[in-house]
Design goal:
By secondary structure, the chain is of the alpha/beta class. 42% of the residues lie in helices and 19% in strands. Helix 1 crosses helix 3, helix 2 runs antiparallel to helix 3 and helix 7 runs parallel beside helix 8. The longest helix has 31 residues. The radius of gyration is 22 Å and the shape is elongated.
Length: 282
């Protein structure tokens, strides 16, 4: 499944920002009204810690929607590694707009940079193995596409975006359909050409998924020895994805079993926002 690109997210970004500004500003920023409307200002945004940057387009959209006179000048780009106290961007324009947009802009930037930073850390752990690390649907409601874009900025990859762009046949789907073969056959009839992935919990189920013609087979909490056996059994007839109970201490060894993918919910679920700061000068 292809990674999301920024060009695909134009409408999404504008919608994300509209909702966030409405949530924060509501009927109007009453504190900003303390400042004369004609007063102009300059601001500098820095990071207080090392990070991988993501979210520049969301910041641009915040100030574009607030006041077209605000000029955003970036010194970094999405995917760049930065160090503590490094300047990320500067702002020039009406002081009211700079202050009203500060929190919303930094919320997007610190959150998406947090995802990108975590992903870069995990990607570094498997460097040289050839495995691709995949995200999951464990994302913040309303920010899935933003987070999945951030995953790519950190050097990892996108799994399916939602329930509409690929099949992922799990235990309950199999039970409801009657068998792995019946579920895969139905998937091919419902949406020919869509990727069909089957989750298996044993090597016996792996064989059934291969015989059914699954494109991708998810090895759910199989042991590392079972994963190596699965690679040998599959012989390239399907792509293999390891999933379930994977952490930093086991990731490298799992990647070295020969599977094609490893999916990790923590890439988007367990994020920690990057510490950023804005300094205003008149």
């Amino acid at each position: 499944m292809p990674n999301l690109t920024l060009a695909e997210l134009t409408d999404e970004i504008e919608a994300n920002v509209r909702i966030a500004l409405a949530e924060d500003i509501g009927s109007g920023d009453i504190t900003a009204q303390l400042i004369p409307a004609e007063r102009m200002a300059r601001a500098t945004v820095i990071t207080r810690e090392s990070a991988v940057i993501c979210g520049t387009a969301w910041v641009d959209a915040v100030f574009r929607q607030l006041d077209s006179r605000v000029v955003v000048s970036w010194q970094v780009a999405d995917g760049d590694k930065v160090q503590a106290n490094q300047t990320l961007f500067t702002l020039e324009g009406p002081a009211r707009a700079l202050l009203s947009g500060e929190r919303t802009a930094l919320n997007f930037l610190q959150t998406l940079s947090g995802v990108a930073t975590r992903c870069r850390h995990y990607a570094d752990l498997v460097e040289g193995t050839g495995v691709k690390l995949l995200d999951t649907r464990k994302t913040l409601p309303g920010l899935r596409q933003a987070q999945k874009y951030a995953v790519t900025c950190g050097g990892c990859h996108n799994h399916r975006i939602g329930l509409y762009d690929a099949f992922l046949i799990k235990e309950n789907h199999i039970a409801a359909c009657g068998s792995i073969a019946a579920a895969v056959q139905a998937a091919h009839q419902i949406a020919p050409g869509k990727p069909v992935e089957v989750e298996v919990e044993s090597l016996k189920e792996l064989q059934q998924a291969l015989e059914a013609g699954a494109d991708i087979i998810m090895l759910d909490e199989l042991s590392q020895d079972e994963m190596r056996q699965a690679v040998a059994i599959t012989e390239g007839r399907a792509r293999l994805e390891a999933s379930g109970g994977i952490n930093e201490s086991t990731l490298r060894a799992i990647a070295e079993t020969g599977v094609d993918y490893v999916s990790i919910g923590a890439l988007t679920k367990d994020l920690r926002a990057v510490d950023l700061s804005m300094r205003l000068s008149l």
